[in-house]
């Protein structure tokens, strides 16, 4: 299961630092130094977070001379969103049926 894309995406998103990095990258490309700025951690620690995000396919690192910009990749997020939506729709339908059943019971109707 370690190679499962969806599992890698959710595992990467489980950490608040990585989510903050993705939020920053949603505004545009940034270097490791720029990404590390708001955090009270070493560049090495930020780099480890970036490796997790890169392994999950959530970011890519370019090369422009000495500058190595990181950029957000949205495809894994789209896949996770589709998975969540599919199950949210199922859960909503089940809750709607439960709500109808509770209302029926409250009205004193018998189920046949």
UniProtKB/TrEMBL annotation:
<protein>
    <submittedName>
        <fullName>DNA-binding transcriptional ArsR family regulator</fullName>
    </submittedName>
</protein>
<dbReference type="InterPro" id="IPR036390">
    <property type="entry name" value="WH_DNA-bd_sf"/>
</dbReference>
<dbReference type="InterPro" id="IPR036388">
    <property type="entry name" value="WH-like_DNA-bd_sf"/>
</dbReference>
<dbReference type="Pfam" id="PF12840">
    <property type="entry name" value="HTH_20"/>
</dbReference>
<dbReference type="GO" id="GO:0003700">
    <property type="term" value="F:DNA-binding transcription factor activity"/>
</dbReference>
<dbReference type="InterPro" id="IPR011991">
    <property type="entry name" value="ArsR-like_HTH"/>
</dbReference>
<dbReference type="InterPro" id="IPR001845">
    <property type="entry name" value="HTH_ArsR_DNA-bd_dom"/>
</dbReference>
<keyword id="KW-0238">DNA-binding</keyword>
<feature type="domain" description="HTH arsR-type">
    <location>
        <begin position="1"/>
        <end position="92"/>
    </location>
</feature>
<dbReference type="GO" id="GO:0003677">
    <property type="term" value="F:DNA binding"/>
</dbReference>
């Amino acid at each position: 299961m370690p190679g499962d894309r969806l599992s890698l995406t959710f595992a990467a998103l489980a950490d608040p630092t990585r989510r903050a990095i993705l939020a920053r990258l949603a505004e545009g490309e940034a270097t490791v130094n720029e990404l590390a700025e708001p955090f009270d951690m070493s560049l090495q620690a930020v780099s480890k977070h970036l490796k997790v995000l890169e392994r999950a396919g959530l970011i890519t690192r370019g090369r422009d001379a000495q500058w190595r910009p990181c950029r957000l990749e949205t495809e894994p997020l789209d896949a996770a969103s589709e998975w969540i939506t599919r199950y949210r729709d199922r859960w909503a339908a089940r809750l709607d049926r439960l709500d109808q059943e509770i209302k029926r019971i409250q009205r004193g109707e018998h189920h046949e």
